[in-house]
Write a structure and sequence with these properties.
The structure holds 2 protein chains of 2 kinds. Chain A is mostly helical. Chain A has 2 domains: 3-41, no CATH class; 61-296, MetI-like fold (Orthogonal Bundle), CATH 1.10.3720. Chain A is 73% helix and 3% strand. In chain A, the strands form 2 sheets. In chain A, strands 1-2 form a two-stranded antiparallel ribbon. In chain A, helix 4 (67-98) runs antiparallel to helix 10 (204-220). The model of chain A has no long low-confidence stretch (mean pLDDT 85). Chain B is an all-alpha fold. Chain B has a domain at 77-232: MetI-like (MetI-like fold), CATH 1.10.3720. Chain B is 76% helix and 0% strand. Chain B is built from 14 helices and no strands. Chain B has helices at residues 2-37, 42-47, 62-69, 75-106, 110-122, 127-140, 149-170, 174-182, 187-198, 200-216, 219-224, 233-242, 249-269, 271-282. The model of chain B has no long low-confidence stretch (mean pLDDT 85).
């Protein structure tokens, strides 16, 4: 008989209401109920929640037909892909340099991480001032061309995210076994060989984490997108509707819910469900990747 | 031979140092641009963004004075609300999720497993999925004030916090709590006197992550709060720039500067904890 079960577990159970109660109540209000209701409403036609009427998958059909949503999807995917590659390559390079025992490494690390603490809205406005300062010399602005908005947001995200990923890479690099590096040196491996044959295989777990982190960050981006361009420039379609050419998925969903003249919460909720499936799907793939690696080690 | 390779190694390090120092300066430039522009008159922010303020463009502290009442909303109020919401929500999250996590890790009932699964699940759900229904629910339950919004943060932020706390509690040997129980210590006292002090490193990590999230959060408070009455700093700044009409860039930069100074001070004083906390939170993805 396990004494613990007798003495300890029994009385603790009675305190469940105290220990779990507050979190469970708040969790239901702040997550479970809104989530369930969100799924339900995506299948309904409504202006107000109280007069929701079940219509099946009509909202999803309208969401998928919406050219602005499709544009936002491809734009977001392109953005996430480009930012993923650039952030990870640069963050790894910086982390690699910072683990070489160079003087001032701590100071550099402090500076590179700093932008991470500034919120997305503020970041957006800082950079919109900077880009407009540069582009006004050519009498244009970041709101004039899609490519300015795209690369502007990439630069912003690099500035913000490199420091973050760098921290994860530094942790990974410091965990590379010293004796392996020693052995490589004795065997006459040069710097490049050591990097590609010894170091990179050893930091694969960090690479997986950072890859998925930057991918989901890219897909979920909202504040920076809204503050920097808010979707501008707009292109008017033949049918009179307009496409916001630098609008990403999260902002597109937000606008479908809340834009003053074309708000359509049912379609917005359907887009939100699709968005959730996409982001959760990426999360599951990541989980599988990390699990596999854990088994191998 | 040896001497030579030694000196080439030193030269390489010097070159790398210089390269990093240059990147470092580039990194600081955006913040520096904010600083210099917060002292310029509005018209010069756009035309001479990268020039230091001179006789013509210098506006002294006028931008800061104007910024205080800019946008028909006193800036100090948004600072107060930001601090209130961040402190109250973080405290609430740390206290209640650590309690729940301990209970979940120790009492392995079916109910606990379901809650834990839902918490992990909630971490992959983007905010857009629940933003509409959450803001309606919060309205209905009167959670739409700075004094009650911490409940919403507790609910939506519970997932990550519980996940991190459960992971840590599982690594604490059970024997300590067992011996407390044998000495006649009840669960509540065991938790507050014995478990909670041991959780300190995780409390700091989770606390840092929550502070960074809530302080900078824009969309949740924007949708939940009545923004004519209550604005946090991000809402206030978005309101200044987002509202069409004439935007005073100088005053906006002054407010942006004021809003990032406390963040930078916070960072420089708790840098070690922040970096550790961020690294711990990243592992979950």
């Amino acid at each position: 008989m396990n004494p613990l079960k007798q003495i300890w577990k029994h009385p603790t159970r009675r305190w469940g209401l105290l220990f779990l109660g507050p979190v469970v109540a708040a969790f239901i209000i702040g997550f479970v109920w809104p989530f369930v209701q969100g799924i339900w409403l995506s299948l309904c036609k409504f202006r107000l929640i109280s007069d929701a009427e079940f219509i099946g998958f009509g909202n999803f059909a309208r969401a998928l037909e919406d050219p602005s949503f499709r544009h936002a999807f491809w734009y977001t995917a392109l953005f996430a892909g480009v930012s993923l590659v650039l952030i990870n390559v640069l963050a790894f390079m910086v982390a690699y340099l910072l683990t070489q025992g160079i003087k001032g490494s701590n100071l550099f690390r402090t500076v590179f991480f700093m932008p991470n603490l500034i919120g997305g809205i503020v970041l957006g406005y800082i950079w919109s001032m900077i880009f407009d300062g540069v582009l006004s010399m050519y009498s244009t602005s970041i709101l004039m061309e899609t490519k300015y908005g795209f690369w502007g947001l990439i630069i912003l995200m690099l500035w913000q995210q490199i420091g973050y990923m760098m921290i994860i890479y530094i942790a990974g690099l410091q965990a590379v076994p010293e004796d392996m590096l020693e052995a490589a040196k004795i065997d006459g491996a040069n710097r490049r060989q050591t990097l590609f044959r010894v170091i990179i295989p050893n930091v694969m777990p960090s690479i997986t984490i950072c890859t998925f982190l930057s991918l989901t960050n890219g897909f979920k981006l909202f504040d920076q997108n809204m503050a920097l361009t808010a979707g501008q420039p707009f292109v008017i379609q033949p049918d009179g509707s307009s496409i916001k050419t630098t609008e990403m998925l999260a902002l597109n969903i937000f606008n479908t819910f809340y834009s003053s003249n074309t708000a359509s919460p049912g379609v917005g909720q359907a887009k939100a469900v699709l968005f959730f499936i996409l982001v959760a799907g990426l999360g599951l793939i990541q989980l599988r990747f990390t699990r596999k690696r854990e088994v191998q080690q | 031979m040896r001497q030579k390779s030694f000196s080439s190694e030193r030269r390489r390090k010097t070159v790398l140092s210089v390269v990093l120092a240059v990147i470092c300066i580039i990194y600081v430039l955006p913040v520096l641009t904010v600083v210099i522009n917060s002292f310029k008159q509005n018209a010069f922010v756009k035309s001479e963004t990268f020039a230091f303020p001179n006789g013509d463009s210098w506006n002294g502290l006028q931008n800061f004075v104007k910024g205080m009442t800019f946008g028909n909303y006193p800036f100090w109020k948004s600072v107060v609300f930001s601090v209130l919401i961040t402190v109250a929500s973080t405290t609430l999250i740390l206290l209640f999720t650590s309690m729940a996590a301990w209970y979940i890790a120790r009492v392995k009932s079916m109910f606990c497993k379901v809650i834990y699964f839902l918490c992990v699940f909630s971490m992959v759900v983007p905010f857009q999925m629940v933003m509409y229904t959450l803001s309606k629910t919060a309205d209905k339950l009167h959670l739409n004030t700075p004094w009650t919004i911490p409940v919403v943060y507790l609910g939506f932020g519970a997932g990550l916090a519980i996940f991190m706390f459960v992971g840590f509690v599982k690594s604490i040997p059970l024997e300590i709590e067992e011996s407390a129980a044998i000495d006649g210590c009840g669960p509540v006292r065991t938790y507050f006197r014995i478990v909670l002090p041991m959780l300190k490193p995780t409390l700091i990590s989770v606390g840092i992550l929550e502070i960074m999230w809530i302080w900078n959060d824009y969309l949740l408070p924007y949708l939940v709060l009545n923004i004519n009455e209550y604005r946090t700093i991000p809402i206030h700044i978005q309101y200044l720039k987002g509202s069409y009409g004439t935007v005073d860039l100088g005053a906006t930069m002054a407010l942006i500067l004021l809003s990032i100074i406390p963040v930078i001070i916070f960072y420089l004083t708790c840098q070690k904890h922040i970096i550790k906390g961020v690294a711990a939170g990243a592992v979950k993805g």
